[in-house]
Amino acid sequence: MPGEVSLAHNGVLFLDELAEFSRRTLDALRQPIEDKKVSVARVNGTHTYPAGFMFVTAMNPCPCGYYPGPKCRCTDYEIIKYRGKISGPIMDRIDIQKEVHPVGFFDIENQNATYSSIELREKVESARRIQQDRYKDEEGISCNAQMTTSMIQKYCELDADSLKLLKEISEKYGYSARVIHKLLRLARTSADLDGAEKIRKEDIEKVLSCRDLDESNSKMMVVK
Ligand SMILES: [Zn+2]
């Protein structure tokens, strides 16, 4: 009987309250997220199942859930410990990390959506078509997320300004090659969504804003 990661093959695996999962469970996710397959060792041998899924997850900013608002009663130490449950290697594998803040009931009416769901769907479908066309000669590749390192070099060329910006931020937060490759794949997608042939500086700025947790975690200090 396949487990959750195989049942999610070709679909979405959504884990709510990520910090509530055990470290062992979270670490077991690393291989399937990276290799798109999972190996299970049993008495009669090792079995490999497919596990190519989109990983989506949510968690509170702190144990009580109210950080950084005035209602939060957690200490910095508690917050760092809570966030520390998600190890660096797992964080590295999450392409888009966004902090969402509570919206006041009376503010919702004033918010105009930038795109309707229909418009967004059209943009996504068009970006997908661009990618299928781009990778038609690359075996087993149909979208930006699947680009190998050599393909990133081929399809994600940056101008001098974009390269400088990416380098500065990567040095500031100590990004690994894995994270930089993820950012480049995302930048390619950002350009594709606008139908732009080359990755622009605004794409790099946009993807760097997809790493909210790096910035927020770097602001936290342990008070002893
Ligand atoms: Zn709290």
Describe it.
Residues 116-211 form the Mg chelatase-related protein C-terminal domain. The structure is a single chain. By secondary structure, this protein is mostly helical. It is built from eleven helices and four strands. The strands form two sheets. Strands 1-4 form a two-stranded parallel sheet. Strands 2-3 form a two-stranded antiparallel sheet. A hairpin with a 2-residue loop joins strand 2 and strand 3 (45-50). Helix 8 runs parallel beside helix 10 and helix 9 crosses helix 10 (201-208). The chain binds zinc ion. Zinc ion (ZN) is lined by residues 62-64, 66-67, 72-74. Zinc ion binds next to loops.
SSE inventory with pairings:
Blueprint: H1 4-7, E1 12-15, H2 23-28, H3 30-35, E2 37-42, E3 45-50, E4 54-57, H4 76-84, H5 88-92, H6 117-134, H7 149-155, H8 160-173, H9 177-193, H10 201-208, H11 212-219
Parallel strand pairs: 1-4
Antiparallel strand pairs: 2-3
Helix pairs in contact: 8-10, 9-10
Bound molecules: zinc ion.
Residues 62-64, 66-67, 72-74 line the site of zinc ion.
Entry summary:
It holds the Pfam family Mg_chelatase_C. By secondary structure, the chain is mainly α.
